[in-house]
């Protein structure tokens, strides 16, 4: 009986620790004041769309990203337009991930740039599903106009919304 109670308490403590860690990484609020200082280079303004190679009818790309990571719709990631690759310090297989601050409609999110693509004319970034839902919860828009993308220097960012 004592063993079961101890195991239950231990399990509850572990669950609490995991939920606190996840909540801290989701908020990203700790970065909010430092983001402007970390933005490197000029802001890029254009349209954002969403990509998910696992959706039926998806005509380009595949499950592997340019960084070698597998596409994951549950993370805060994006693909930058191929011609902007160098503005982000290069996005290539095996290289450290690059990060960017994406702003639209009064919302901000830090994303890990782990892929590149030709993208359609006028589009500068393809957001993965989770990131697009941050800006368009119902996914009805398809394209978000007037998105500002700023490369972030350093590699220790926690992707997610910025408060």
From TrEMBL:
Residue ranges of domain RlpA-like protein double-psi beta-barrel in the record: 45-145
Secretion signal span: 1-23
Keyword set, alphabetical order: Signal
InterPro entries (alphabetical): RlpA-like_DPBB (IPR009009), RlpA-like_sf (IPR036908)
CDD domains per record: DPBB_RlpA-like
Membrane-crossing segments per the record: none
Gene3D superfamilies (alphabetical): RlpA-like domain
Keyword Kinase: no
UniProt key word Chloroplast: no
Protein known as: Blr2992 protein
